[in-house]
Every structure is written in C-alpha cells, then in structure tokens.
Design brief:
The protein is an alpha/beta fold. The chain contains 11 helices and 10 strands. The structure holds pyridoxal-5'-phosphate.
C-alpha cells in the first residue's frame, strides 16, 4: 500500500515490507529472520529519518515557524532528509555543518543544496556547543526565528514517529534489532513495543556504552523509563563511526551475493553482522523470530 503521509507533496511508501531471510546461519540457529525494509520507504533518504521528522514537521508547520534549522556532519543522512522533506513541505531549511567547507561540496551536501537547504559551516569546537543557550541565541541573531531540530533529530516527537514502525510489523516477533547512532530509533521501537518482545541495538560508534543512558533518557521523556526489555551491543563498531574493516566488507559482499540486498555500511551492515554473530553464538533461543530494522540503504550516488 502506498499512502501519502508526508507533509506537503512528500509521498512515501508505508508500511515498508518485511523480507524473510533464509540461509545456513538462520537454519543452523533455528531463527526466523526478517528484515524490516525501511530503506525502501523513499529514495535518497532513510526511512527512519522520515519517521523522526514526521511529527517534527507537523509541529513546525502548525506553529507557523518560518524555517527549520538542524545540525549534522558532512555526510549526514539527517541533513539530506531535512533538506528533501523541507523542500517538499515548502519549509525553508538551514543546515549547520560540522567542519570546514570543501569545494566542491561532497555528494551528500550537494544533495542538500540541490534541495534548497542553506548551509553554514562551523568548527568542530563550536559544533560541540550546539546545545548551549548562548550558541543558539547567536544562531537566532543570524537566522531569525526557526524550529530547532537537535542533532540526529533525536527528540520526543522522533521517538513517537519511530514507534510507528512497530505497528507495521504484522507477525509475532521475539526480538527486534536496529542500529544505534543517537538511539532515537531504538527508543521508538522500545516505546512502540511497550514491554512486548526484546530490542537489541548495535552501536555504530566506538565507546557506545553511553548510548544506553541516552536511550533511557529518551524513554523517560515519553514516560517509559521503566521498560527494560532491551540492551545495546557495543562490540560491533568496526573501529568507530564511519570506519570499516575487511571483515565487514566481506560480510556485505556475502550478504549481497546471497540475498541480493546492498547494505549501508555505516549502520546496517554492522548491525546485521552483529545479528549473525548473535545467531551463531546461540543468543536467540531456538525457533525465535527476529526482525532486523534496515533503517536506510547505501548513500545515493
Ligand atoms: C540515522 C541512521 C541510523 C541511526 O538512527 P538513530 O536514531 O540516530 O540511532 C541508523 N541507520 C541509518 C541508515 C540512519 O540513517
């Protein structure tokens, strides 16, 4: 079913499909593995970013904010999503980019420019102050009034939007797994399940043990801090955010050759590598059903 849920003329395909995955590892582990294909929701933008933005866009538009401002790195999936969805909704967008400007801009930033986003570059030191009131007041002096989306769009409205992916899964699941960058997608899944099944997150960052506190904080913000049916695996970062290793590349090649799906390597390949490792280690009991959320696909070329 294709429905036009988006603000403006942004039409997206929800619910996203579930794909059953069968191979030697799933058979040996006796696990029913499904992929929740949020990477198929829309072109160029990860489905979880749409889910995070959906209620934020409605909030910005219903309160008549003249523009939307957010932050991201030079390859940020969120900046691309905000640019595309802002343009579709006719809401001007500003992207504050971490680090120096490069000429010509990389593909990801060019995509933002092509979708009408105004970009400003700030140093890494300044970027670290992105939540301080003084820094935000300075941005208001420069840009006037704006709806502020935090980095990763990880706020309560994002958690509510991400929770909707759970309702779309119409089979019984014992586990739902996802990649963790800021943790809002994971918090949304935990919130949506409301105590049913277990959620396993896989940190795509090195030293991701702080992420559990972030997820707890997001759950507390929606009144669900008591939920404990989740954990985060921190050993599958392959060197850190946006870093890869040969064994990750081999896994991606094998997965593509076997299942004809090209994985995004920054998040989803690391997560699925981890899911396969847990299957091989017997972490999921025999005859369990696992749904792995593929939040987005590889970067557009
Ligand atoms: C942003 C992103 C994530 C991480 O989502 P968080 O809610 O920040 O944890 C995972 N996968 C893809 C493809 C993304 O773009």
């Amino acid at each position: 079913m294709t429905s036009s849920l988006g603000p403006g003329n942004w039409s997206v395909a929800f619910p996203t499909p579930l794909h059953h995955i069968v191979d030697d590892t799933t058979r040996t582990a006796d696990v029913q593995l499904y992929l929740k294909r949020d990477d198929l929701a829309l072109a160029d933008v990860p489905g979880n970013k749409y889910r995070k933005l959906k209620y934020n866009m409605s909030a910005a538009m219903s309160a008549d904010y003249p523009k939307l401002l957010t932050f991201g790195g030079a390859y940020s999936n969120l900046l691309r999503a905000v640019a595309a969805i802002g343009q579709a909704a006719d809401l001007p967008t500003i992207g504050i980019v971490r680090g120096e400007e490069h000429h010509p801009p990389n593909r990801s930033l060019q995509f933002c420019l092509d979708h009408g986003m105004e970009l400003a570059y700030i140093t890494r030191e300044k970027y670290r102050q992105k939540t301080s009131p003084e820094f935000l007041a300075g941005l208001a002096d420069t840009y006037g009034e704006f709806y502020l989306l935090p980095e990763g769009a990880s706020n309560t409205l994002a958690v509510r939007g991400c929770a909707e992916l759970v309702d779309e899964i119409d089979i019984h699941c014992d586990y739902i797994t996802c990649a963790v960058g800021t943790g809002a997608t994971m918090a949304g899944i935990v919130y949506g399940l409301d105590g049913k099944a277990r959620v396993v997150g896989f940190s795509s960052l090195k030293g991701g043990s702080f992420l559990a506190d972030d997820v707890r904080g997001l759950l507390a913000a929606v009144g669900k801090e008591h939920l404990s049916n989740w954990w985060i695996e921190t050993g599958f970062h392959f060197g850190g955010y946006a870093t890869r290793k040969p064994e990750l590349n081999e896994f991606m090649d094998w997965f593509e050759a076997t299942h004809h799906i090209t994985l995004d390597w920054v998040y989803e390949a690391k997560m699925l590598f981890g899911v396969y490792a847990l299957m091989a280690a017997g972490t999921f009991p025999s005859s369990s059903t696992v749904a792995a959320v593929i939040a987005g696909g590889p970067e557009p070329d």
